[in-house]
UniProtKB/TrEMBL annotation, chain A:
<dbReference type="GO" id="GO:0005298">
    <property type="term" value="F:proline:sodium symporter activity"/>
</dbReference>
<keyword id="KW-1133">Transmembrane helix</keyword>
<dbReference type="InterPro" id="IPR037272">
    <property type="entry name" value="SNS_sf"/>
</dbReference>
<feature type="binding site">
    <location>
        <position position="59"/>
    </location>
    <ligand>
        <name>Na(+)</name>
    </ligand>
</feature>
<feature type="transmembrane region" description="Helical">
    <location>
        <begin position="80"/>
        <end position="101"/>
    </location>
</feature>
<feature type="transmembrane region" description="Helical">
    <location>
        <begin position="203"/>
        <end position="221"/>
    </location>
</feature>
<keyword id="KW-0769">Symport</keyword>
<feature type="binding site">
    <location>
        <position position="438"/>
    </location>
    <ligand>
        <name>Na(+)</name>
    </ligand>
</feature>
<dbReference type="GO" id="GO:0015193">
    <property type="term" value="F:L-proline transmembrane transporter activity"/>
</dbReference>
UniProtKB/TrEMBL annotation, chain B:
<keyword id="KW-0325">Glycoprotein</keyword>
<protein>
    <submittedName>
        <fullName>Collectrin, amino acid transport regulator</fullName>
    </submittedName>
</protein>
<keyword id="KW-0732">Signal</keyword>
<dbReference type="GO" id="GO:0070062">
    <property type="term" value="C:extracellular exosome"/>
</dbReference>
<feature type="signal peptide">
    <location>
        <begin position="1"/>
        <end position="16"/>
    </location>
</feature>
<keyword id="KW-0597">Phosphoprotein</keyword>
<keyword id="KW-1003">Cell membrane</keyword>
<feature type="domain" description="Collectrin-like">
    <location>
        <begin position="23"/>
        <end position="220"/>
    </location>
</feature>
<keyword id="KW-0812">Transmembrane</keyword>
């Protein structure tokens, strides 16, 4: 290269035409490598695979079971305002930042943060440990989905009816007091013990399903991004197909519009409640899966010039759009279930009145039950008093107001709605396949966050092939995960779900933003982005990264700490089958 | 004389009503025809009551294995608009004797499905107060259906994993053989920094900044 520049300098003809710009390539840019270079980093076959992998990771069970609950609690359609605001203030900037770090450093989370500053390696380790916790308990949900999926292949869904008692005169008492769907979840699926102290044994069916879940995860990640890249085409797109089918089925159900109308009527007074804004911020934060190191891992397999900025915006918008879409489906299902319960309640009251007063069947219809009840109360008070204890006040609003989130929504409320649909086996199979794909897609990201830093450790890769490392990680998580399949496993699940990742993630991402902006330096980061994308990030990104997102994260973190301190001893809800009236008792855990 | 004859004629029904009304051995029956059948509901009239009494007589016959029960042995009272009433069963030997409650209950439980079918109703819509319905026994499977589906899925996945691992092993073996044969052709192969060789197969090539016409690079 030096000789070329000399000859051009001294060549008069070229001087006359135009000045020639010479390029001096940075040293070591091109180097000769042996043909079978073990250090060549694998990469996605196309940018589309990367986008789909991120979508599959970010769109998970939280979009289906947490967002509709928040929407309902915080004023329906009005909740979209704080939600979208937080998306632009913290969601998209932080997402873009993690993608940038991974794509620039081309290493997993430990390597990437160590490259920024050797003292920050702990940040990467924190991400890996948090991902480990998540992997342990998240796959248990997939095990439950498998259990329900396999049990859908029966002529009568097992959660549609209570099992018959020993002398066949009636149904089991535990099932009578609760409902068949609750009984199936707590007794048959979990075989839950009455408190976290009673371990019970392993539930063999659950253990088998967990084994299957981990084997499938291993199958998806065994070859790293090569296998993951194939799988995400399916896991990212098929849930949308099912959601669309469910949308059509949902809005055509009787009473679905009650639910959708109820949900979308905005109650703007909720915006004055600070809890609304806090929940919107945390939902955006956790829904995008920031801080686990999965995004850094995924983008470390990108080409150097991949346009991650545009992809970050697209993926975040897809994630939020899916939340809204899923909540429309959920609310039409809610509406159907609430209407069904309301009409059953009216029917029960009608029969009660007919039987107690021996009136002919045509005299009371579902519409005038309430009128008749008050009429009978006035005209025959003594006879009415006999049945007064059994009279329920049937209200559609009360049914719609029962908001459920989490596993209760996914496994109890939804299955109750499904059992009342015609062709319930088909809808059940479709629904649980969708839950499985959402859960598996997120698991791919979580496990990739662990195996990518491990693959960067030269010591390990010298002795073990990548398939063995991946297998060992899956095996370890499986063995530890068996604890969640014991009879008290669901309580341990609740502990992990509420405390394992939440606080640590806020802290991790806060330190990430501070490190990138102030330790690494925002100017250096801008130059790196220009190197990758060809243009500098504009003022929106810089303001968010340097000022707004750190402030938001810090205030969320402080709020969580205050909540922990003020909350006192944590409590959990236990299912006690000896309690006659209600299944749940609040137990204090020490 | 006439009074005596009249008394004789009207006594049995009066006595019968007393037997039915005051008795401890009677059962209350409730039918919900409109609820059960909707638009196909039939009217409850004397003929339907006749059918009911005859099905009960049939049930008593089957239970006691005596062919002596007739429709006159079934006495009915307390008819209401709801379509509910009370019935008692008199003994075949002595019309004033009633069959005990437990016997009637057993007879009804044994033949409930026949009685239900005679009226096109079910256990929910044709209720005998005090006689719990016998629910159908749970189906016992040799192998639970869920285990079968589980077996199919885990088998398929296991086959997939084994196939993948074998193809990895065979690829590595082939690569090793090629390396042994082509080790002298190492020189002159140029790769860009760290990306896999396969990416160079793309048609548009790779943007190599070393040769870009960018202003920030050194000017002559």
């Amino acid at each position: 290269n030096a000789t070329t520049s000399d000859s051009i300098k001294h060549s008069p003809e070229l001087h006359q035409i135009q000045p020639v710009k010479l390029c001096v390539p940075p040293s070591g840019f091109i180097r000769k490598l042996p043909l079978h270079n073990k250090e060549a980093r694998p990469s996605w076959d196309s940018p589309m695979q990367f986008v789909l992998a991120c979508v599959s990771y970010a769109v998970g069970l939280g979009n289906v079971w947490r967002f509709p609950y928040l929407c309902q609690m915080h004023g329906g359609g009005g909740f979209l305002i704080p939600y979208l605001l937080m998306l632009f203030l913290e969601g998209i900037p932080l997402f873009c930042m993690e993608l940038a770090i991974g794509q620039k450093m081309r290493l997993g989370s430990i390597g990437a943060w160590t490259a920024i500053s050797p003292y920050l390696g702990g940040l990467g380790i924190a991400s890996v440990v948090t991902s480990m916790y998540l992997c342990l308990y998240y796959n248990v949900i997939n095990a439950w989905s498998f259990w329900y999926l396999f049990h859908s292949f029966q002529s009568v869904l097992p959660w549609a009816e209570c099992p018959v008692n020993a002398n066949r005169t009636g149904y089991l008492e535990e099932c009578e007091v609760a409902s068949p769907t609750q009984y199936f979840f707590y007794r048959e699926t979990l075989n839950i013990s009455s408190s976290i102290d009673e371990n019970g044994g392993l539930h063999m069916g659950q253990a088998l399903c967990l084994l299957l879940a981990w084997i499938i995860v291993y199958l998806f990640i065994v070859r790293g991004v090569k296998s993951t890249g194939m799988v995400v085409y399916f896991t990212a797109t098929f849930p949308y197909v099912v959601l669309f089918i469910y949308l059509i089925r949902g809005v055509t159900l009787h009473g679905a519009w009650n639910g959708v109308k109820y949900m979308f009527t905005p109650k703007l007074e909720q915006l004055a409640n600070p809890q609304t804004w806090i929940n919107a911020a945390t939902q955006i934060f956790f829904s995008l899966g920031l801080g686990f190191g999965s995004l850094i891992a995924f983008s470390s397999y990108n080409h150097h010039n991949n346009d991650f900025e545009k992809q970050a915006v697209v993926i975040s918008l897809i994630n939020s759009g899916t939340s809204v879409f899923a909540s429309v489906v959920t609310f039409s299902i809610y509406g159907f279930k609430a209407t069904f319960n309301y009409e059953s309640c009216l029917e029960r009251m009608r029969l009660l009145c007919l039987n107690a007063f021996d009136l002919s069947e045509e005299s009371i219809s579902a519409e005038n039950v309430t009128a008749w009840i008050s009429h009978l109360n006035i005209t025959h008070p003594e006879r009415f008093a006999a049945i007064a204890s059994k009279i329920e006040h049937c209200s559609l609003e009360a049914e719609l107001d029962t908001a459920v989130e989490g596993t209760g929504l996914a496994f109890i409320v939804y299955s109750e709605a499904i059992k009342n649909m015609p062709l319930s086996q088909l809808w059940s199979v479709l629904y649980f396949i969708m839950l499985l794909l959402l859960g598996m897609g997120s698991m791919l990201g979580n496990v990739t966050a662990i195996i990518t830093p491990l693959a960067d450790i030269k010591l390990l890769t010298r002795f073990l092939s990548s398939e063995s490392i991946n297998g060992l990680v899956c095996l370890l998580c499986l063995l530890l995960g068996f604890g969640f399949t014991s009879r008290s496993g669901s309580y341990w699940f609740t502990i992990f779900n509420e405390y394992a990742a939440t606080l640590s993630l806020l802290f991790i991402v806060f330190i990430e933003v501070i490190s990138v902006c102030y330790i690494y330096g925002l100017r250096r980061f801008e130059r790196d982005i220009e190197d990758m994308l060809g243009h500098r990030p504009n003022w929106y990104w810089k303001v968010m990264w340097a000022v707004v997102s750190p402030l938001l994260l810090f205030s969320l973190f402080i709020f969580y700490i205050i909540n922990y301190i003020q909350g006192g001893t944590p409590t959990y809800q236990a299912w006690d089958k000896d309690l006659v009236r209600s299944g749940f008792s609040n137990i204090t855990v020490y | 004389m006439l009074a005596g004859v009249l008394l004789l004629i009207f006594l049995p029904p009066l006595v019968a009503k007393d037997l039915c009304k005051d008795s401890q051995d009677g059962f209350k029956v409730r039918l919900s025809i409109k609820t059960g059948l909707g638009d196909d509901a039939y009217e409850w009239n004397e003929s339907e009551m006749f059918l009911f009494r005859s099905t009960l007589a049939y049930a008593m016959r089957k239970h006691s294995n005596q062919d002596t029960y007739t429709i006159d042995n079934i006495l009915v009272c307390n008819d209401t608009q709801r379509v509910s009433f009370v019935f008692v069963v008199t003994s075949t030997d002595d019309p004033d004797q009633l069959i005990p409650k437990e016997q009637v209950e057993l007879a009804v439980r044994q033949n409930k499905h026949r009685i239900n079918n005679a009226f096109l109703l079910s256990d929910m819509t044709l209720e005998f107060m005090g006689i719990p319905p016998t629910l159908s026994a749970p189906i016992i499977y040799d192998t639970e259906p869920w285990l079968i589906v589980f077996g199919v899925v885990i088998g398929a996945v296991a086959v997939g994993i084994v196939a993948l691992l074998m193809s990895t092993v065979s690829k590595k073996r082939r690569a090793k053989e090629k390396a042994a044969g082509l080790s002298e052709e190492d020189e002159g192969i140029v790769k860009e920094n760290g990306t896999a060789l396969s990416s160079l197969g793309r048609k548009e090539g790779v943007y190599n900044q070393a040769f870009s016409n960018d202003d920030r690079f050194t000017k002559l």
